[in-house]
Task: structure prediction
Amino acid sequence: MSAAAPILLIGAGGHAAACIDVIEQDGRFTVAGVVGTKEEVGQRVLGYPVLGTDEDLPALVGRYQNVLISIGQIKTPTPRIRLFERLQQIGCTMPVIVSPRAYVSPRASIGAGTIVMHGVTVNVAASIGRNCILNSMCLVEHGAAIADHCHLATAAVVNGGAAVGSGTFLGSHCTIRQGIRIGERCIIGMGEKVSHDCEPGARLPAQRSFN
Result:
């Protein structure tokens, strides 16, 4: 068996810790270290050192080709999108990370830099874009399409043939009806049941501040 390849994580918060747990279980990569804020440099995340900040990325990427964005996404996808585009320009490899406790159909597709966490199901002919978070226990049913830079929170359900636009956040335990179209950069709140198409930028429920 070949040795696990080193991978650098960008983001040192709670989502990074969850990513580390999945990476350790996956076994294909070993965490070389984490990139955080200036205040976090020298600290550790689950025992792994915070090696530097975003300013150090060119040098760090020269040492560690494999990179995963490990900052979370709730209010806005913009920080993750900016990082993804910068890492592409630098020439990083952003592998797909899949928990061994998830099920991904061999007839599904997943884009670069996406993490599939514990208990997730991605069924036949589903497509998942780049730089997505499929959080614990979420379900993407047959033929559903999740665009780039989306976050499906814990136990979110996207039913068959539905489509979710780029940069959208689906809250915990929300349910998207089959065949529904969700526009780009929408925020669907926890527990919402969506039975109609949503225009880009929509927020459900509309009165929620998401602060």
